[in-house]
Amino acid sequence: GENVEQHPSTLSVQEGDSAVIKCTYSDSASNYFPWYKQELGKRPQLIIDIRSNVGEKKDQRIAVTLNKTAKHFSLHITETQPEDSAVYFCAASLQGGANNLFFGTGTRLTVIP
Amino acid sequence: DSGVTQTPKHLITATGQRVTLRCSPRSGDLSVYWYQQSLDQGLQFLIQYYNGEERAKGNILERFSAQQFPDLHSELNLSSLELGDSALYFCASSPRTGNTEAFFGQGTRLTVV
């Protein structure tokens, strides 16, 4: 089955700096890669996603890049703000959608004011 | 608010007992997914139903079962509960299966004592 690895497990940045979280996946058939943000005790919320036919996608301060050859994808957050502090999960799906998502182990991002 | 409703929010029960978690998907969504989030296993996909039928199965134990009813709400039944079953159980829904975003509910926190 698919195996998703995520690094780092914790990340602290100063407000205004950039944050980068990286994930690798094992199954080249995976074709959907969402990123979720989860605040303490709350539900995971989709913040951005990318499909295998696209190399990069950007939404305001958030961008995701995908390297299919190397089987890795990354989340980039620029101009970080304290409200960006949360746990971020990457995921991969073999079935082209939201079913059977394989999640990474999460990155706890702390933005220091 | 994602539009996905889960009840109850919290549940405390004893080992060996059986509980039922309920999920109402967003209006119009046909697919329902169940995920388990525990400290040691992270977010794991359990099972998916689409329009009343089981569509995909993940790491769901034999002690667990689920169903989706004609009104599209779903129930996750957990039996012979063990301490290790303590976790957050999330339901997610999407309009269809494949190539769609999943919207997560707020989760049910199950504590087995």
Task: Name the features.
heterodimer; A: 113 residues; 6-stranded mixed β-sheet; globular; B: mainly beta; 7-stranded mixed β-sheet; 0% helix
Describe the structure.
The complex is a heterodimer of chains A (about 110) and B (about 110). Chain A is built from no helices and 11 strands. Chain A has about 110 residues and is mainly β. In chain A, strand 7 and strand 8 form a beta hairpin. The model of chain A has no long low-confidence stretch (mean pLDDT about 90). Chain B is globular, with a radius of gyration of 13 Å. Helices cover about 0% and strands about 55% of the residues of chain B. At the A-B interface, strand 4, strand 5 and strand 10 of A face strand 4, strand 5, strand 9 and strand 10 of B.
Shape of chain B: globular
Flag low-confidence runs of chain A. Answer: none
Q: What is the number of strand segments of chain B?
A: 11
The helix/strand series of chain B, from N terminus to C terminus, equals EEEEEEEEEEE
Largest sheet of chain B: 7 strands, mixed
Total number of helices of chain A: 0
Q: Note the beta-strand portion of chain A.
A: over 45%
Round the mean pLDDT of chain A to the nearest integer and report it: 92
Low-confidence runs of at least 5 consecutive residues of chain B = none
What is the count of β-strands of chain A?
A: 11
Strand content of chain B: over 45%
Distance between the termini of chain B: 31 Å
Helix content of chain B: under 10%
Alpha carbon gap, first and last residue of chain A: 41 Å
What oligomeric assembly is this protein in?
A: heterodimer
Alpha carbon gyration radius of chain A: 13 Å
Rg of chain B from C-alpha positions?
A: 13 Å
Average predicted local confidence, pLDDT of chain B: 92
Report the order of strands and helices of chain A.
EEEEEEEEEEE
The amount of helix of chain A comes to under 10%
Structural class of chain B: mainly beta
